[in-house]
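User: Sequence recovery, please. Input:
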């Protein structure tokens, strides 16, 4: 590490309000003695907006390595946060998400609290929470690795053609579980349990529970229910050779690879977690209620010696 404090700024630069927010964040970092850093694609889109900074901006991978990053501040929704997690992979920098989108489940705070969040980031006034990630490997019929990647939210095996289904074998810890036709399979972390897994009918898993969810998509089978397995389990999905056409593997909706008949996708816990910066300790239940706007009117709460808290409406 150098003596310079390097903080990555990642923004969804297609929106004017996000560009304006990126300018404010970069100015605050500069004034606080830190150096703003941009990934090369972001520099092309945001360079003009930040060109006035006296010290300029650094480029990730050119001026600053991922190992030299102290923190990543993200302005956007969950997709932008996932992109930031990809950018800092291989380093130790945590990701601080400022929600500029809609749900923004991975974000720590909303846009109205941005200035205070950046002030605290400069002071180092945040906690780091480690989230389990997935290691994802694809093998061909000769058991040769043809693709190797990772995922924070989920790895999904999907059919590539709308009119055809996939025929798969699901394997847990080296033993076959079931064979069926389906539109696909979702293998999710607890972090991703509120994303694609949730939409597919899978369970919401508290972040403190280390587990892997396995959820079939529109399966043609009597026994094809969501499963929750241990964090050290190995989940494999084989695309049967009799499958007509090809499938496709998606990881976090960002990294993909075609799956020919006979391909084998192996998903395990990754050795390296993803680090999220947290400013406010909060119960995960409260985050669910707030992000999904769940109805809690009428809650009385547990009996206590003092006044009972009332749920916010």
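Assistant: Recovered sequence (313 residues):
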């Amino acid at each position: 590490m150098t003596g310079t404090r390097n903080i990555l700024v990642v923004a969804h630069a297609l929106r004017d309000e996000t560009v304006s927010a990126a300018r404010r964040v970069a100015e605050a970092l500069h004034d606080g003695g830190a150096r703003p850093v941009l990934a090369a694609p972001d520099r092309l889109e945001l360079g003009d907006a930040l060109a006035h900074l006296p010290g300029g901006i650094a480029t990730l991978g050119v001026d600053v390595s991922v190992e030299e990053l102290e923190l990543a501040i993200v302005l956007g929704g969950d997709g932008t946060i996932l992109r930031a997690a990809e950018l800092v992979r291989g380093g130790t920098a945590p990701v601080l998400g400022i929600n500029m989108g809609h749900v923004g489940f991975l974000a720590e705070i909303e846009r109205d609290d941005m200035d205070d969040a950046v002030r605290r980031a400069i002071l180092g006034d945040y906690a780091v929470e480690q989230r389990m990630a997935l290691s994802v490997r694809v093998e061909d019929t000769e058991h040769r690795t043809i693709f190797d990647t990772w995922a924070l939210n989920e790895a999904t095996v999907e059919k590539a053609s709308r009119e055809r289904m996939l025929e798969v074998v699901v394997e847990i810890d080296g033993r076959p579980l079931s064979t069926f036709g389906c539109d696909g399979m979702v293998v999710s972390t607890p972090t991703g349990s509120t994303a694609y897994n949730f939409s597919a009918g899978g369970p919401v898993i508290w972040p403190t529970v280390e587990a892997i969810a396995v959820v079939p998509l529109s399966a043609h089978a009597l026994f094809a229910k969501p499963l929750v397995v241990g964090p050290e389990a190995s989940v494999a999905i084989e695309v049967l050779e009799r499958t007509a056409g090809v499938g496709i593997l998606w990881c976090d909706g960002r990294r993909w690879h075609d799956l020919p008949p006979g391909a084998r996708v192996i998903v395990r816990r990754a050795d390296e977690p993803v680090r999220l910066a947290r400013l406010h300790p909060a119960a995960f239940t409260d985050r669910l209620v707030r992000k999904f706007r769940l109805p809690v009117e009428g809650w009385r709460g547990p009996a206590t010696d003092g006044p009972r808290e009332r749920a916010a409406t």
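The mean pLDDT is 90.
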